[in-house]
Design goal:
Strand content: 5-15%
Number of strands: 12
Bound molecules: iron/sulfur cluster
Helix content: 40-55%
Distance between the termini: 51 Å
Largest sheet: 8 strands, parallel, barrel
Length: about 475
């Protein structure tokens, strides 16, 4: 009997998950099934993650955003992690990756899976290192054990850096920043110390068997992604990509859903070419990109440097964008960084959907523009990507209620408000009467996932508190402002 969404789709069955995705994306269920069957899209939904609201990742669907959360050895605890999960869902993450490397790995992962209405991803090599004590001491058996346990816990997708091969490592010798992927550097150390091939590569078929049993989607990690512009599109990156193309076929042969991870740091002019190359080498498997950052000069602003690249990657065909926060390269993100990163990436994903002509994507822009031009301030705030921030910006100088009806704001002032002046001129000419108004977002062909407020996930599905081992944890309040 089929076990994965891919196997069901190939067998011609539209699953309840495909039905839900079709509803959310405003597509025919048969089209969703077709896209999953031919590997062009994935529905990460571990069979035991019962709280997940199914979603789809594929270039023909709305561009998705992942938020990385998780603790490190030095920072964050259960409470902090629950706050980050809550903030990520609240600000519109489509998936979260628990990248914890500190304490309480199992408890945090179980909490995330249990509480999360969106798919949860992990990088199991991190736990394998924690268990072994150092990268070179990881055994094949322990690695498979960790992967199997996480699959049983309900993780929906896992990053597997199986494309880092022994023969690729010399190709990184001349790089400016070497190997910057955590997983990539761990596996490089394992290969060099043990003088053997990457265990994730040699055990890949066994991993696929585990994934097929639980319907875990494999996210083929880019362990050799460039960590700076100087290293972008180099031999090491493309050699690994070629291996990822081969592994994509292997996973498909086992009925496992596949997406492929991509760079990193890439100059703007090379992004479209990188996406096209991945799509060709990996036969259209969804591309899941980290940024990419289009310049290296702005630590503290890398949510912006990378959102610029992510927009271009989404326009060129990337299916999911992994957010980057202002803390990138500097420290562990807190919940405010999660909010900043997600807002930047929701903008990137939406801008990409508008640029690729996703049906109805621009309706949101048109509705907001209409509210702006007609000075319907409350509607403008309501439609804003981050309503709280939009209203706070307005209230900073004009907090009184009567200014919510005003035909100007403090930017130009009443006398110089160009929209007021323009409207008065158009009113005098009778042009305002023929203006088409009232864009009905309810009737928009855009997927619900594209309509405001950001995200489609009901945060009330995350309970107000969670008790783990007799300790009560509470998530963040609705607003990250307070
Ligand atoms: S004052 Fe300027 S910024 Fe404000 S609504 Fe008028 S045109 Fe727009």
């Amino acid at each position: 009997m089929p076990q994965t969404q891919l196997q069901w789709a190939r067998a011609g069955t539209v699953t309840p998950e495909m039905m839900r995705v079709a509803e959310r994306e405003n597509r025919e269920p048969s089209y969703v099934r077709e896209q999953v069957a031919n590997g062009q899209a994935v529905i990460p939904a571990n069979r035991t993650h019962t709280s997940v609201d199914p979603m789809i990742i594929g270039r023909e669907f709305s561009t998705k955003v992942n938020a990385n959360i998780g603790n490190s050895e030095t920072t964050s605890d259960m409470q902090g992690e629950l706050q980050k999960l809550h903030t990520a869902v609240h600000y519109g993450a489509d998936t979260v990756m628990d990248l914890s490397t500190g304490s309480d790995l199992d408890a945090i992962r179980e909490m995330n899976v249990e509480q999360s209405p969106i798919p949860v991803g992990t990088v199991p090599i991190y736990e394998a290192v924690k268990r072994a004590g150092s990268p070179e001491d990881i055994t094949h058996e322990a690695l498979l054990e960790v992967i199997e346990k996480q699959a049983e816990q309900g993780v929906d997708y896992m990053t597997i850096h199986a494309g880092v091969l022994m023969e690729h490592l010399p190709l990184t010798d001349r790089r400016t920043t070497g190997i910057v992927s955590r997983g990539g550097s761990i596996l490089a150390q394992w290969i060099e110390e043990n003088g053997m091939e990457n265990p994730l590569y040699t055990q890949f078929e066994a991993i696929c068997e585990i994934f097929a049993t639980h319907d875990v989607t494999v996210s083929l990690g880019d362990g050799l992604r460039p960590g700076c512009l100087a290293d972008a599109s180099d031999e090491a990156q493309f050699a690994e990509l070629k291996t990822l193309g081969e592994l994509t076929e292997t996973a498909w042969d086992h009925g496992v859903q596949v997406m492929v991870e991509g760079p990193g740091h890439v100059p703007m002019d090379q992004i479209a070419e990188n996406v096209a190359r991945q799509q060709a080498v990996c036969n259209g498997a969804p591309f899941y990109v980290l940024g990419p950052l289009v310049t290296d000069i702005a630590p503290g602003y890398d949510h912006i440097t990378s959102a610029i690249g992510a927009t271009e990657a989404g326009r060129a065909g990337a299916a999911m964008l992994c957010y980057v926060t202002p803390k990138e390269h500097l420290g562990l993100p807190d919940r405010d960084d999660v909010r900043e990163g997600l807002s930047a990436y929701r903008i990137a994903a939406h801008a990409a959907d508008v640029a690729t002509g996703l049906p109805g994507a621009r309706d949101w822009d048109d509705a907001l523009s209409e509210a702006r031009y007609t000075f319907d301030w409350r509607r403008q705030f309501e439609l804003a990507l981050d309503p709280e921030r939009a209203q706070a910006g307005h209230d900073q100088t004009l907090p009184e209620d009567n200014y919510k009806e005003a035909r100007f704001c403090s930017m130009c002032g009443v006398e110089f408000c160009s929209m007021r002046i323009d409207q008065e001129a158009r009113e005098a000419d009778g042009e305002m009467d023929v203006l088409e108004t009232e864009i009905d977002l309810e009737e928009s062909p855009a997927a619900a996932v594209n309509l405001p407020p950001v995200g489609t996930h009901d945060t009330s599905r995350i309970p107000d508190s969670v008790e783990i081992n007799g300790v009560t944890f509470r998530p963040a309040p609705e607003s990250a402002d307070d």
